[in-house]
Specification:
The protein has 540 residues and is α+β, with helices and mostly antiparallel strands. The protein has 17 helices and 20 strands.
Length: 540
């Protein structure tokens, strides 16, 4: 067991004079006083704006610091929203479940009692070691600051924005986005439902506005069948409700009257009644002519018998739903196995969702479950499926967030991707466990050392027993050493240092921040000299 002390390292080369001159230039431009800049005016100008509280000018300078600390301290650091943190994270608009909850929405509702309670009871999807989708508990929701993010797109239409450090489940293990390339395989599951309105809007249109499912489908440009399925899931669908064509329903009929009517019609046909168009030709009836023209336009003739018939099993013409489409595609005997899960394929899917595009490259064979997954989404998929990356592109700087999931499966589904959460999956047995010694407590040393020794022993035993690092990791304590890189502008560093060096701050946080403040004072004294530490710390 190795015990190390917390530390910091400033990663930028800092020149105090250069920083002050840059701040003065930015401030003078804002105040329209560039003519007052001299060789010695920068220091006096910066002192004045800090004293007056006009600190927005010093936001133009950023400093990056690497911290070595324990996990408890790192989780406190990421609560500073204006910083950028080099850890794995995703953007706030990432969807976590079929109800459209985003990670930003869950983080923000942590600020009220109602939201915190519901976040504790909320379950989202994870996957086990066999790729089976399971429900899991959210342990923690974290804001990771503003970071550079990239957008990843896949062949099946999945899309997500995240940092280069965020890890995705591949066919072998988890890999950072920076380690992935176009053409690599990645595991996905649970695309959002193809419905353009949420449950509240749908309920309002159906119950309060009196619109039928057909009318809502047309109004919102949504798939009718998907909309109908959602109404049934909500338990508010009633047959014939809001139907504007009441005449088509024969309300006065009973079960016995239907049987009676059917028998009467059958007797009529047995006694000479004929089908209305039997024997009629186009020249004799405008209705028959209209029907014949419709068949000419829409009906596909099978072109004879045997190999000439497109329903023949040896044909290379695509057959869908029992009907020959007359397009180049895949024959019935070429279905084989599902291209996503490996089960027996029963259906075909159009990659571009265009049912008229029967090009071979646009058709994939699927089992029924996977086909439903691609069309209907989250509540259908029961296991992960393989997809292919088609693009990775830089987006810009956005707010980022991450989750910590419950034991034993520390991963979650984000926009349909299987991603790992903030708990790292290093195999510490090969690299060696290192712990951060907490700020000294009276008579607590031996108890802490023993606890670390036991946790290390348990972890190593789990690894030797064949348990994966992400599961064995759960027995390790908050005192485990971690590293985090933080970038913030000077104004935010002033806020952090005032807050984290005060007497009320956690001792371990003060232990990390007081030395940083002292170094900042040496490098840029004008910016940090007014921050006074009232009480020093002594580890010994």
């Amino acid at each position: 067991m190795n015990i190390v002390e917390p530390s910091h390292k400033i990663l930028d080369e800092i020149n105090g004079d250069t920083i002050l001159k840059k701040i003065e230039l930015c401030g003078r431009i804002a105040y329209k006083s560039e003519d007052k800049i001299t060789l010695t005016s920068a220091c006096r100008f910066v002192e004045k704006i800090i004293k007056s509280g006009h600190e927005s000018v010093i936001e133009h300078v950023n400093i990056t610091v690497k911290f070595i600390c324990d996990r408890g301290v790192s989780h406190e650091l990421v609560r500073h929203r204006l910083c950028a943190f080099t850890q794995e994270c995703i953007t706030g608009d990432t969807i976590l479940n079929k109800y459209g909850y985003t990670i930003k929405y869950l983080f923000e509702r942590e600020n009220n009692r109602y939201g915190r309670t519901h976040n504790k009871t909320l379950r989202i999807k994870s996957c086990d070691e066999n790729g089976i989708i399971i429900s899991n508990k959210i342990e923690n929701i974290m804001y990771k600051g503003k970071n550079e993010v990239y957008e990843l797109n896949t062949e099946l239409g999945y899309r997500i924005k995240c940092t280069l450090n965020h890890k995705f489940l591949t066919t072998c293990n988890y890999k950072k986005l920076s380690e992935l390339s176009v053409g690599d395989s990645i595991m996905v599951n649970g695309r959002p439902l193809l419905l353009n309105i949420n449950n509240e809007q749908l309920t309002y249109l159906y119950n309060d506005c009196g619109l039928s499912p057909q009318e809502i489908s047309k109004e919102t440009n949504s798939a009718y069948r998907t909309l109908l399925t959602r109404l049934k899931e909500l338990g508010i669908f009633t047959a014939k409700k809001n139907d504007k064509n009441k005449e088509k329903y024969q309300k006065n009929h009973t079960k016995s009257s239907f049987v009676k009517m059917r028998n009467i019609i059958l007797n009529q046909y047995n006694n000479g009644r004929k089908v209305w168009n039997k024997g009629l030709i186009e020249e004799e009836s405008s209705s028959v002519k209209k029907q014949a023209n419709a068949l000419r336009v829409n009906h596909y003739n099978s072109n004879g018998f045997g190999e000439k018939n497109t329903n023949w099993r040896g044909s290379n013409i695509t057959v869908s739903g029992g009907y020959a489409r007359g397009r180049e595609g895949i024959s019935v005997e070429e279905y084989g196995n599902c291209e996503l899960c490996g089960e027996k394929a029963m259906e075909k899917h159009h990659r571009d969702l265009n049912p008229l595009n029967y090009h071979k490259l646009n058709i994939i064979t699927l089992c029924k479950n996977c086909h439903k997954l691609l069309h209907y989404g989250w509540n259908i998929g029961k296991k992960t499926i393989k997809d292919k990356i088609i693009s990775i592109s830089y987006i810009g700087i956005e707010d980022t967030y991450d989750l910590e999931m419950g034991y034993p499966f520390h991963n979650y589904i984000a926009n349909g991707f299987i991603v790992h959460n903030s708990t790292r999956y290093c195999n510490y047995k090969t690299k060696g466990l290192k712990f951060i010694y907490p700020f000294k407590q009276i008579n607590g040393d031996l108890y802490w050392v023993e606890a670390m020794r036991v946790s290390e022993q348990c972890y190593n035993s789990l690894i030797e027993a064949g348990v994966s690092p992400q599961i064995a990791r759960s027995v390790l304590p908050n005192s485990l050493k971690t590293e985090i890189v933080v970038t913030a502008n000077l104004r935010e560093w002033r806020h952090i240092l005032k807050l984290r060096t005060s007497k009320a701050a956690h001792p371990q946080m003060r232990e990390l921040m007081i030395p940083l403040l002292e170094e900042f004072k040496k490098l840029v004294p004008v910016i940090f000299d007014d921050i006074i530490v009232s009480e020093r710390l002594d580890r010994d």
